[in-house]
Structure formats: structure tokens, C-alpha cells
Write a structure and sequence with these properties.
Structural class: alpha+beta
Number of strands: 8
Order of helices and strands: HHHHHHHHHHEHEHEEEEEHE
Number of helices: 13
Helix content: 40-55%
Distance between the termini: 41 Å
Radius of gyration: 28 Å
Oligomer: single chain
């Protein structure tokens, strides 16, 4: 994977900037690269606000064009950001201002970046059919030809380098040793931290005795770990009943509508969001969302009814995966953080739809509230609990097909 990440991926990232006017032999820095760095920071910050925690690292404070040294596992995040730069209307228009690139070349870059991301995903699969591995020989040749035609590397040895040639031998390695995970050096490098780096920090750090002391500290730590594991088996700790996870998580607030003189028509001006004293919120939700809640929810529940809400929701799947969905108006005193999620809906015909939506906030309703709200067209559910206020896309996701895009454009309803 290092050959792929620090080889082709590094070449394609540098080649992208060269193709829009950057000269590696010159000290001048085109202005367009500075503008792309600003967009890359904005895109990376938004992509970082995800409830799925296994997405690649995409936020780079120093930009992606400044030559900052990146680790191998960060390359796919940079490629994902570059792919979005080529797909967005504003950044695509910015790219076309360069005299070195046109629309045809941008389409070629989109195809190449998507192919590289899919190739890396396929290479990290835990198991692959033998027929797929055999068919990958032709696909690898096609991808490398696309790489040559799009990147057009001219400086140095061009593409007469070992990192480019080694990709042709991926098939042989997979047939001999199995999937890439079998020979991936990543776990060994990670184990080096606890097996060598940590014990070496517990030594006197003298050159003549550091190896001997490191080995002794490693053996001592191994004995202590074994003893602790044996003690847990022979003398297990008492299992206490787990406390119930609270429904409201994160910053909590109360929406209050107080009708002083029985004036139920002036609901928008009388309703307020009061944050708990333990939460220091710099700015609250946009007034438009409060107006919608007032007109559609508080109007049904009536005055003098306090509605509780929060900014986070923790969820666990049957497979053990844990997710945190956030809907915060000012995360840690900065910008808002509204996660996206896929929701299951039913249309008028009873057909099940899966539509992505952006979570605005979380609201708690009790049984009495749901008896008054369950028949409303915009309320889905009839049981008390935590509900999410969302903005959905205008259309549901298309069915996954072979050759579908990695990044697609869409708009919220």
C-alpha cells in the first residue's frame, strides 16, 4: 500500500498542480493554487463533520498545494478533496481560468481520481475472488495508460520510475500471497510503537546499553500484561448493571413558548431557545428553524409547553459499530456542525426510500406530545423518544450501478 500511496498517489497529486500552472523548478507560486488551498480547507472541514469515523483524513490546515509532507494514509484524503474540487461548479470555474487546463482535461482528471480511489478501496478488501484478481491485470494496464495520458509527467525521468512499474506486479503478489492485507506493513509499523518505542522510553537512553535495557523493559511489560490478563480471568470483577444512556446528549436546550395574555397568534415572537447553564453557546440555531418549529410543532402542542432538545445522538449497530451524529449551531465556539445521514422513508405508494438528509437538531417528545403530532404529514413516528429535525435532498439516491460516480452533485429540498 505504501507503493500505491507514496508512489502513484503522490505523483498524481503533484501532477495535478503541475497541469494547472505550477512549475516544480521555479520558486514562483501561482495565485490559483492559493485559491485552491482556501477551497480545499473549506471542503476538508466540512468532510470532517461526518458521523462515519472510518472516512479518510481530509482537513489539512496548511493546504494541499504547499508541499507540506503528508503521510501515506493521508494521500487518499487529498485525492478525495481534489476530486470534489473538480466536481464543484465554483472550483471548476476557477480551474478553467488557468490557460493550462480545459474541460476535457478536467473530465480526464475526474475519471483518474475516481479510479485511483476505487482501486485503493478494492486493494484493501479482506477477501477477493480469484476471478477478480485475474481480471485486474487488464484493468491495471488500462488505469496506468489513463494515468500517463492525464498526468503527462515531463520533468525528471517522466514515468520511467520503479514506483510506476511495480504496479504491474500487484497481480503476481496477490496470487502468491493473497490479499494486500496479508503483506501490508502498516500493522507492523503500528506494533513498533508498543513493542520498541514505548520500552525504549523507559530506559536510561545510553547508547551502549539501550538495546539491552529496551529488551528487558519489553519482557517486563509482557509479563505484567500476562499477569493482568490471568488475574482478570481468575478473579473477575463484579459486573454492575450498566446505567441507562441518557436520551439528551451534548449541549441541551429548552424551547419555551409563554402565552402571557392568551395571545396564541404571536407564537414566533414569544418562543425562545434557552440553553442550559452548563453549556456556553456562542450562537444559537438560525431563526428560520425556530420559526418552522413554532409554526408546525409548538402551534399543535399549545402554549406553556417546554420542549427539550440536544445537539448530539449516539447510536450503535448490531455489528458493534458506534456512531455519533452532531447537530450543533457553534461547535466548540466555531462554525456549525450538522451531520448528514441516510433516512428510510415511505412514499404515498408505500415504497421504501432511502434519502440523505442533513440533521438540524434533536428534539425529545413524550407520549402526550406524540398523540398530538403523530398525524402530521411531516412527523414520522408515533412513539415517544428522540426525534431528528432534518432537511432532505430533493430526490432519493439512485440505485447503485457499476460505474457510478464516487462524488455526485445534489441539492437540499
Amino acid at each position: 500500500m505504501h507503493v500505491l500511496a507514496l508512489g502513484l498517489f503522490k505523483l498524481v497529486i503533484k501532477g495535478f498542480f503541475v497541469n494547472i500552472g505550477y512549475n516544480p523548478l521555479s520558486k514562483s507560486y501561482p495565485k490559483i493554487l492559493q485559491q485552491l488551498d482556501v477551497w480545499a480547507q473549506r471542503i476538508g472541514k466540512v468532510l470532517g463533520h461526518q458521523s462515519v469515523r472510518n472516512l479518510p483524513h481530509t482537513y489539512f490546515p496548511n493546504g494541499v498545494t504547499g508541499g507540506t509532507k503528508l503521510a501515506g494514509h493521508e494521500m487518499n484524503g487529498v485525492i478525495l478533496v481534489l476530486l470534489i474540487l473538480c466536481k464543484m461548479t465554483e472550483t471548476c470555474t476557477l480551474l478553467l481560468t488557468s490557460k493550462y487546463i480545459d474541460e476535457h482535461q478536467i473530465r480526464g482528471w475526474i475519471k483518474l481520481l475516481e479510479s485511483l480511489l476505487v482501486w485503493r478501496w478494492w486493494s484493501k478488501l479482506p477477501s477477493i475472488q480469484l476471478a477478480e484478481i485475474q481480471a485486474s491485470e487488464h484493468a491495471t494496464h488500462v488505469l496506468l495508460k489513463l494515468f500517463k495520458s492525464v498526468v503527462k509527467r515531463e520533468h525528471g525521468s517522466k514515468l520511467l520510475i520503479i514506483k510506476f512499474h511495480l504496479c504491474l506486479h500487484f497481480l503476481e503478489n496477490q496470487l502468491d500471497y493473497g490479499v494486500t492485507a496479508n503483506v501490508d506493513t502498516g500493522p507492523m509499523e503500528s506494533n513498533h510503537k508498543c513493542n520498541a518505542k514505548k520500552p525504549s522510553g523507559q530506559t536510561q537512553r545510553r547508547a551502549d546499553t539501550i538495546e539491552l535495557q529496551t529488551s528487558r523493559r519489553y519482557i517486563e511489560n509482557l509479563i505484567l500484561d500476562t499477569a493482568a490478563a490471568t488475574l482478570d480471568k481468575t478473579h473477575p470483577q463484579l459486573v454492575f448493571e450498566k446505567q441507562q444512556v441518557p436520551v439528551l446528549v451534548g449541549a441541551k436546550y429548552t424551547i419555551e413558548w409563554v402565552s402571557a395574555n392568551g395571545d396564541d397568534d404571536d407564537i414566533k415572537s414569544n418562543a425562545t431557545i434557552v440553553w442550559d447553564k452548563s453549556n456556553c453557546i456562542v450562537k444559537s440555531y438560525h431563526p428560520w428553524y425556530l420559526e418552522w418549529l413554532c409554526s408546525n410543532v409548538l402551534a399543535e402542542l399549545g402554549p406553556n409547553v417546554a420542549i427539550r432538545g440536544c445537539t448530539e445522538h449516539k447510536r450503535s449497530t448490531q455489528s458493534g459499530d458506534k456512531y455519533i451524529f452532531r447537530a450543533h449551531p457553534a461547535w466548540r465556539g466555531g462554525d456549525s456542525w450538522h451531520d448528514w445521514a441516510v433516512f428510510s422513508w415511505e412514499d404515498d405508494d408505500g415504497m421504501s426510500l432511502r434519502i440523505p438528509a442533513q440533521i438540524i437538531t434533536f428534539i425529545q417528545f413524550d407520549g402526550a406530545d406524540m398523540r398530538m403530532l403523530q398525524d402530521l404529514p411531516y412527523v414520522f413516528g408515533d412513539t415517544p423518544g428522540l426525534y431528528a429535525m432534518v432537511e432532505t435532498l430533493e430526490r432519493p439516491l439512485m440505485d447503485a450501478k457499476t460505474g457510478s460516480r464516487v462524488v455526485v452533485a445534489s441539492t437540499k429540498a
